[in-house]
């Protein structure tokens, strides 16, 4: 072997050794499949948003169960809030006179039977005098009867006189009962010259048009008292939807600030008003009464059970969010919320029908659910 051949063989051997060393170094420095899988898993975005109950309250995120029923089972209607018939009273003067004392003002609490004002009245004086005279006649008739009974026992007076005295006492007592009933109906005060204006219900004074020294006629409204804890809601439904509503049907009441209060249908008149062409439904709120006030206008969504299927799921449209190419709702978990993929159907009246991915009764984020979406996207970006 000459010198050139030896040089060529040495160079080939050096190249082989270098390639083998490079392959070994690459094997030693390459990541293992487990490490690569763990890296990919850590890089994948999470669908969970950790949030404490205090943070949920601070963010004003409302949580409500997904409703059951078909989308067309929800009947939207405008409703008016008012006190129940036995929780509101219009207070009047039972006789004409002048307002002499006022004890309560608007907003003051009142107990049943408590006096709000006094009205001086000539009629009250006449009724009180009549009551006193009737009581005196009863006393006189009772004494005459006792005297005739004694004379009859002695054989001095005939029985006819005794029976006449007995009849006179019965007439006097009937007259006294009439005068006492008149005084009670007029609410004559103990001073014998005033009429008492008292409340038959407990609650608060909501109106007080009476003024001190004002002359008022009989049955003039002086005060209005209502119990704010005993409320009912009346909603007018289209005549076509009225037959679908049953007593006990669930109702969602939407307030002006976006809050939702649960309620139930108490009763339905079943009669269509000839002027408005609507049927009146009475609704009773089951919670959140402290946020309601008589006269307030609210929106009601009645889930009529008449002829409607109950295997569907409905959620408010604010609960449905789009994250990337996914449509999700945020389900409440022990540590916060979890984005759950859903398939949506039709939309109507602020509700969205969920075709799949969510069961009825599952607690989900409704109001301000977009905050969870933003938090989820921020975590994915990080």
From TrEMBL:
Residues 313-373 form the CzcB-like C-terminal circularly permuted SH3-like domain. It comes from the Bacteria. The keyword Signal applies. InterPro entries: CzcB_C, MFP_Cation_Efflux, RND_pump_MFP. Keywords: Signal, Transport. The keyword Transit peptide does not apply. Residues 1-26 form the signal peptide. Belongs to the membrane fusion protein (MFP) (TC 8.A.1) family. This is Efflux RND transporter periplasmic adaptor subunit.
């Amino acid at each position: 072997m000459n010198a050139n051949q030896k040089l060529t063989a040495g160079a080939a051997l050096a190249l082989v050794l270098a390639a083998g060393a490079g392959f070994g170094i690459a094997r030693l420095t390459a990541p293992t499949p487990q490490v690569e899988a763990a890296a990919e898993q850590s890089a994948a975005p999470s669908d969970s948003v950790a949030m404490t109950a205090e943070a949920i309250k601070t963010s004003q995120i409302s949580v409500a169960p997904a409703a059951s029923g078909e989308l067309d089972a929800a009947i939207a209607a405008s409703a008016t809030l008012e006190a129940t018939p036995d929780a509101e009273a219009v207070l009047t003067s039972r006789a004409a006179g002048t307002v002499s004392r006022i004890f309560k003002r608007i907003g003051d609490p009142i107990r049943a039977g408590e006096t709000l004002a006094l009205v001086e009245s000539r009629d009250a004086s006449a009724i009180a005098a009549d009551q006193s005279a009737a009581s005196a006649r009863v006393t006189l008739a009772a004494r005459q009867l006792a005297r005739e009974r004694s004379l009859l026992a002695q054989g001095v007076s005939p029985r006819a006189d005794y029976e006449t005295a007995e009849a006179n006492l019965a007439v006097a007592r009937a007259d006294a009962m009439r005068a006492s009933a008149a005084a009670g109906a007029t609410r004559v005060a103990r001073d014998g010259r005033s009429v008492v204006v008292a409340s038959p219900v407990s609650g608060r004074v909501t109106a007080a048009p009476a003024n001190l020294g004002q002359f008022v006629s009989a049955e003039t409204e002086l005060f209005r008292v209502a119990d704010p804890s005993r409320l009912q809601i009346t909603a007018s439904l289209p005549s076509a939807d009225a037959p679908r509503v049953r007593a006990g049907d669930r109702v969602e009441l939407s307030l002006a600030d976006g809050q939702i209060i649960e309620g139930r249908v108490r009763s339905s008149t079943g009669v269509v008003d000839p002027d408005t062409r609507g049927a009146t439904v009475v609704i009773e709120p089951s919670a959140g009464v402290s946020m309601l006030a008589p006269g307030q206008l609210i929106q009601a969504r009645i889930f009529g059970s008449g002829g409607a299927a109950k295997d569907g799921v409905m959620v408010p449209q604010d609960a449905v969010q789009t994250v990337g190419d996914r449509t999700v709702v945020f389900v409440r978990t022990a540590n916060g919320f979890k984005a759950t993929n859903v398939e949506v159907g039709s939309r109507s009246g602020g509700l969205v029908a969920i075709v799949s991915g969510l069961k009825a009764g599952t607690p989900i984020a409704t109001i301000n659910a977009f905050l969870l979406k933003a938090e989820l996207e921020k975590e994915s970006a990080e």
